[in-house]
Amino acid sequence: MSNTTSVLYDHPGPRARVRNAVLTVVFGLALLALLWWVYRKFDAAGQWSGNLWKPFAESETWTGFILPGLLATLQAAAAGMVFSLAFGVIFAVGRLSEHRWISIPAGAVVEFFRAVPLLLMIFFIFYAVPFLIQAPVSGFWAVVIGLTLYNGSVLAEAFRAGIRAVPRGQSEAAYAIGMRKTLVMRHILVPQAARSMLPVIVSQLVVLLKDTALGYIVAYPELLQRGVNDLSANYGNVVAAAIVAAVIYIIINSLLTMLANWLDRRSRTRGGRAPKVADTPQPPVPQGAGEGAVVGT
């Protein structure tokens, strides 16, 4: 445990450890009781009947409904993640610009798309934008653009907070050696902000992945549409289909979190450690030099 962590974290005493253990057992038993109650209610309604779960043992169910929906979800989520991160970085830097003709419009764009509900945004892009561009917009791009505008605006605020959290001394030192603001942003501020805001970024990307389910409003064949609505319409097992889809979402989001943790550990390892003072070569001091002596001329 690092020095900072040991200072900020107060180790529990014997009574606190006993209390924490008791609370852990109590909440664990309460959770088990809740799960048992849900299981009994579903069992009473016949939701655990083998006929409702039998389709998931057939390959046609996975190849015809679940896997195509999962692929469409991952495609929209991957494109939305890339564009959202780029959108967030660009507009975060724009909001931090010293030129008001850049910072004010960037702030207006971010605040507008943060305020508009994502479902309404996808609906508008799919049904209203074709009247403006005189061309149809596919369901895929309606979902991706909506995800980009909303989640990118949220990430822009996260990046802006992370950039402002970087100590000013680092940017001032970069300016002192002649670096311009674009280089300072690219090589010093943005990488550190991305690392410090990694938990927030991962949380927002998880939200983005789940928000692909809103594509049903434009009939985009994502996992919820194909794996729950279409599947239950053919087999009549909506609860079973929803449980399977929920498990798939949990697995994907857990893998995304594990990937982010691995990237964080890798970046910290590759970043290295600062050299120790004892290892830094010191200039020779002339003999007889007192406290107020000046070395060199």
Which descriptors would you attach to this protein?
mainly alpha; single chain; 297 residues; disordered N terminus; 75% helix; flat
How much helix is in the residues? over 70%
Count of distinct strands: 0
Summarize the helix and strand pattern as letters: HHHHHHHHHHHHH
What's the story with the biggest beta sheet? none
- The computed structural class is mainly alpha
Taken as a percent bin, the fraction of beta residues is: under 5%
- Tally of helical segments: 13
Supply Rg. 27 Å
Mean pLDDT: 83
Q: How would you sum up the global shape?
A: flat
- The N- and C-terminal alpha carbons lie at a distance of 46 Å
Would you identify the regions where 5 or more consecutive residues have pLDDT less than 50? 1-7, 272-282, 288-297
Question: What do you see in this structure?
Answer:
The protein is mainly alpha-helical and 297 residues long. It has 13 helices and no strands. It is flat and about 70 Å long. The chain starts with a helix and ends in a 26-residue tail after the last helix. Mean pLDDT is 83; it is low at 1-7, 272-282 and 288-297.
